[in-house]
Amino acid sequence: MRHLALLVLFITNFNEVLSFCQPGCICFDDGKDVRCDHANLTTFPYMLNPMLKKLSLVDAKLKLLDSASISVYQELEYLDLSNNEIEELPSDFLVGFSKLKEVKLQNNKIRLISDDLFKELPSLEILDLSQNKIERIMSDAFLELKALSSLNLSSNNLHMISSKSFNGLSGLSELDLSENQFEKLQRETFDQLTGLAYMSLKNNKIKNGKNFNFKLLKLKNC
């Protein structure tokens, strides 16, 4: 009887943990879909359902990201960190989330995309880094994103892109580079983008944009 009572207590406590919803957040689908939009959070939430699939933290006043806290949510498929005050992405923040399909980081203060940010993300299809302050994208930054189909880098401070920045993105179909500071682009930068069907270069300072001869590529308002 004692063991049975302990088992019942364990199950009860476990269910309470799974059903816990952090103050400032709204939880759906037994805590697998959590929205903490406009919450005044000082840290990344870490007491949510570990089976969490969708997490939205739009305009949650986040400045620092905690790799240890997010590592609990290995089932995560959708992450929205838009409209925060994030200046830096920890090197291991998004490493190893095998089921993650979409990440939104637009309208933050990120300046650098290093080559150790997006590792072991075999399912990632959509990545939005628009409206940041990105000045540099390191070589091979997206190398392991084999499933990526849409990459948005619009409205940043990019003046140039390394010829190896887009290495590995043969499956990319949409690329948005509008609203940056490009004056010229190297043709070899886009050599590996064999699946590209659409690219926007509007509102840059490019003089040679119309000279690019990409197969199936539509240049919008060069």
SS strand fraction: 15-25%
Number of strand segments:
12
Inertia-based shape: globular
Q: Give the helix proportion (percent range).
A: under 10%
Distance between the termini: 75 Å
- Annotation field: number of helices: 2
Major sheet characteristics: 10 strands, mixed
Quaternary organisation = single chain
In N-to-C order, the SSE pattern is: HEEEHEEEEEEEEE
Radius of gyration from CA coordinates: 20 Å
Strand order of the largest sheet: 1-2-3-4-5-7-9-10-11-12
- The overall pLDDT average reads 86
Question: What structural class results from the helix and strand content?
Answer: mainly beta
**Which stretches are low in confidence, meaning pLDDT under 50 for 5 or more residues running?**
1-18, 213-222
